[in-house]
Structure formats: structure tokens, C-alpha cells
Amino acid sequence: MKKFFAVLTVVFVVALCACAFADEAKLKTVDDLKNQKLAAQRGTTGQYIAEDLLGDNKSLLLTTYEKYVDAVAALRQGKVRAIVMDEMPARRFLNEVEGLAIMEEVLSEESYAIGFRKGNTELVEAVNKALAELKADGTLDKILEKYYSTFLAGDSSSIKPEEIDFNKGAKGGTLVVGTEAGFAPYELKVGSGFIGIDIEMCALIAKKLDKELVIENMNFDALPMAVSTNKVDMICAGMTVTEERKENMDFSENYVNAKQIALVRADDYEK
């Protein structure tokens, strides 16, 4: 008899939860996110946008994660209703994880640039010169197309870390770049190596400066301190240029335009 009532209780609880979920209105617009549990990667523009959306409730409703993959797991488990994040990494998750969708409304548009220690003018100028050359001869556009097409097609395995030339043994020393290698298609750790738009771009910049590229992989929110304390020479991690960040570091010219969007569960979104 006890076993019967235990089973009955479990069935009742499951049914009750299912009814509560079914009665909950689906997300339709960005305004619907303003009173929902949201996720973002810690220290990113997505976190700041989510905080603005939630206003005074941000401490109660916003959960930040060190890695996007953890935020996606929370979304799938129903712990949060949306992740505020960069568009291209979100599209990568669409290809790799079933049951996700991107809300049509764009939360913000932004530009990525390389970050430097404040006052490191010589390196900023050298990198800007190299960037300008990569833009002018079409190389940067080719890198962007290579990664956008392969990742959106779910074929990232065709890109091999060993095929990227880090210019090892260069006479000019090393160029140490800080990044967070869980931000595909911009940077991704594959085995013991790295691939991504930022990785290949930095490898070409290093070669133009006659330096060997060295990658330091760390949490995104640790990057500003790493560059300000000379642990790394520069940071390249899909970093958005903001007025707040410009107070503490210098930036290169922009190298790509991006968008912030909301990643949600497909069954929780009505277009």
C-alpha cells in the first residue's frame, strides 16, 4: 500500500509540474525576458545586457556561468528561460544541440577588437598595421567565411589545429595572446591545440610581427587583469569595445561586427 501511494504521489507531482509548464506563456518578444530567469557568460557584454533587461531583479533572476556550455545545460534543464549571448556561438549550439532556437529580435549590435594594456601604444600600432593589411588583401574576410560556413554547417572537425602556423621559433620572440577557448567559431580548444577566427587572425598578425604566437587560455572575466598585469601581451576573445572597458585598456581597430541575441528552448518560443 505504501508503495502504491508513493507511486501515486510521484505521478501526481510530475503531472502537476507538467501542467504548470504547459500553462506558462511562451516567450514571444524580448520584453517577455524582463521578468524571467536568464543566463549569461560571466564578464561578457551578454551579462551587462541581461542586467539591463532585468533591472532591479538582476540579483534574483540572473545566473552567470564561466562557460557557455554550462549555461546551455541550464537552459535545457529548465533552470533558466534564455541565455543572452553572441550570435555566432549561439548558432554553433543550434547545430550541436537539439531543441534550441534564437529569438528573432536582436538585443544589440557591437564590434569586436583586440585589447591591450593601457598605454602600450607601440604594440597597438603594430597590430593595427597588420590588421589593416589582412583586411585590405581580403585575408580576414576569407578567415571569417571559412569559420562561419564550416561551423554553421556543423563541419568544424574539418579544421585542424596543426594546420595553423604559429610561426614557432620566430626571431622576434613571442606574442602572448589571452583568450577563452570556448567561444566558437572565434576560439575553440581542440585536443591540445586551438582553432577559430581569432586564433588564425592572431597567428597571421604574429607572423607579420616576426613573432611566435603563444595562446594563454583562461576564463573570460580574468582576461582584462591578465593584460593589465602583463601576463599576456594582448587579449583576443570576441571582446566588445565598450566605454567602460576603454577606461582600463586600449583597443585595436575593430575586426568584426557582431550581435547579441537570446538563445531559448524551441518549445518555449512562439514567433
Would you write up a description of this structure?
The chain has 271 residues and is an alpha/beta fold. Helices cover 39% and strands 22% of the residues. It has 10 helices and 14 strands. The protein has helices spanning 2-23, 45-54, 58-61, 68-76, 87-96, 121-136, 139-152, 197-208, 223-228, 243-246, and strands at 38-41, 62-65, 82-86, 100-102, 108-112, 115-117, 174-179, 182-183, 187-190, 193-195, 212-217, 234-235, 249-251, 256-265. The strands form 3 sheets. Strands 1, 2, 3, 4, 5 and 14 form a 6-stranded mixed sheet that branches. Strands 11-7-12-6-13 form a 5-stranded mixed sheet. Strands 8-9-10 form a 3-stranded antiparallel sheet. Strand 9 (187-190) and strand 10 (193-195) form a beta hairpin. Helix 6 packs across helix 8 (197-208). The longest helix has 22 residues, at 2-23. The radius of gyration is 21 Å and the shape is globular. Mean pLDDT is 90; it is low at 1-22.
Distance between the termini: 48 Å
Q: Total strand count, please?
A: 14
The averaged pLDDT comes out at 90
Q: What structural class is derived from the secondary structure elements? A: alpha/beta
One letter per element, helices H and strands E, the order comes to: HEHHEHEHEEEHHEEEEHEHEHEE
Largest β-sheet summary: 6 strands, mixed
Helix content: 25-40%
Low-confidence stretches: 1-22
Note the beta-strand portion.
15-25%
Please state the overall shape, judged from the principal axes of the Cα atoms.
globular
> Radius of gyration in whole Å, from Cα?
21 Å
Count every helix, treating DSSP H or I runs of 4 or more residues as helices: 10
